[in-house]
Amino acid sequence: MKNTILLVEDDVKLSALTADFLRINDFEVTIIENGLEAIEFVKKQTPMAVILDIMLPGVDGLTVCRSLRETYNGPILMLTALDDDIDEVVGLETGADDYLTKPIKPRVLLAHLRALLRRIEAIEQPSQPKTPKLLGKNLAIDPKSRTVTVANEMVHLTTAEYNLLWLLAEKSGEVLSREELHRKTFRIEYDGLDRSIDLRISRLRKKLGDDPRVPFIIKTIRGEGYLLAQ
Questions:
Q1: Do residues 11 and 37 both lie within one domain?
Q2: Does the first or last residue of the chain, that is N or C, have fewer Cβ atoms within 10 Å of its Cβ?
Q3: Residue 164 contacts residue 208 (beta carbons within 8 Å)
Q4: Phi and psi (nearest 5°) for 100?
Q5: What is the pLDDT of residue 84?
Q6: Predicted TM-score of the model (pTM)
Q7: Domain CATH for 154
Q8: Domain annotation covers residue 128
């Protein structure tokens, strides 16, 4: 499903309008109204991206996002009618790559979707070496297969998490500022308030088994940024 977008939205009229607009712009769209059905769909298929509403009948979008991240590595763009910073933080912590508040104009949604796909494509370009990168005694990153192991155990990372880890690995032993990480990840300047990088670092540490109180893999350099230990 190389060019297919999964749209998980229970508002029939809104989903139809959104899907029509995306199809006009050369995307295939599959619409699902139920969270459980969306989870089952992604287990069997691999859409290019998922656009996911938070307010769904039965299983809410946050739960769906968390479940999808167990197996799905592609981008997830979350939508909600709620306008609350806490919801945004929770959405990002469960694995969403972007977050938009409804009502949203179709062209704005399309712009965010394309930007998200470009970010991932740009970082996935074959400029990376083909041999595994070994960091310290436990961490190994294989750019050819885009896999990560810690103490020889495979670690499941989302596309966004892997890309951030690779940015740190490219300059392991050097401090990378939030500004630089944000700019390379999102292709826009850091405004000093966005917590997306911090949240992704937090998720990475948890998956890598890195104690946030005394991290030994990804270190916080106060006032400067983050460093991936060699």
A1: yes
A2: C
A3: no
A4: -130, 145
A5: 57
A6: 0.60
A7: 1.10.10.10
A8: no
Q: Could you report the average pLDDT of every consecutive run of 10 residues in the chain (230 residues)? A: 87 93 95 94 92 90 89 86 60 75 86 80 52 71 84 83 87 89 72 73 88 85 86
SS3 at position 52: strand
CA proximity to 6, closest of 24, 28, 26, 21: 28
- Record the tokens describing residue 9, joined without a space: 């939205």
* Structure-token pair, residue 198: 């911090």
Peptide bond into 103 cis (omega under 30): yes
* Among 102, 123, 144, residue at a domain's last position: 123
Q: Which helix (H) or strand (E) holds 20?
A: helix 12-24
Contacts of 30 (CB under 8 A, 6+ apart): 1, 4, 5, 6, 7, 41, 45, 47
**SS in 3 state form for 152-171?**
CEEECCCHHHHHHHHHHHHC
Domain assignment present for 33: yes
Same domain, 94 and 112: yes
Question: ∠82-74-190 over CA atoms, to 5°?
Answer: 60
pLDDT at 24 (0 to 100): 95
Pair 44, 64 in one domain: yes
* Within a domain: 116: yes
Token look-up 């946030």 returns 212
Report d(CA 184, CA 169) in Å as an integer: 14
Segments in 54-105 forming alpha helices (H): 61-68, 85-93
What CATH number has the domain bearing residue 84?
3.40.50.2300
